[in-house]
Write a structure and sequence with these properties.
The protein is of the alpha+beta class. It has 3 helices and 4 strands, in the order ββαββαα. The protein has a single domain, classed as Pemi-like Protein 1, Chain: D (Ribbon), CATH 2.10.260.
Length: 91
């Protein structure tokens, strides 16, 4: 494990710490991180992907229930909307 000692500094009304590029590269952190406070520690980690596992869940649903239907609750309303939007303009 690699350690670095640095100082906390102020940045406006907040306290900041500078992280060297090399340390960030080694950590694999991306632009969006999650901070967690524990006794005497602040843990910085990547945020979990909110879509992680969706592909597998969708594939399992498709296997269990068959092909997804693209029919919605509005039926054939799109043709009515098109007719209303062009009402009087197509002359």
């Amino acid at each position: 494990m690699n350690y670095i000692t640095t100082n906390l500094t102020t940045s406006g009304n907040s306290v900041a710490v500078r992280l060297p590029k090399e340390l960030l590269r080694m950590s694999g952190l991306t632009k969006k991180v999650r901070l967690q406070a524990k006794n005497g520690q602040i843990i910085i980690s990547n945020t979990p992907n909110p879509r992680h596992g969706w592909k597998n869940q969708i594939e399992q649903e498709l296997k269990a229930h068959g092909k997804l239907s693209m029919v919605d609750d509005y039926g054939d309303m799109s043709q009515e909307i098109d007719a209303t939007l062009t009402d009087g303009l197509n002359k």
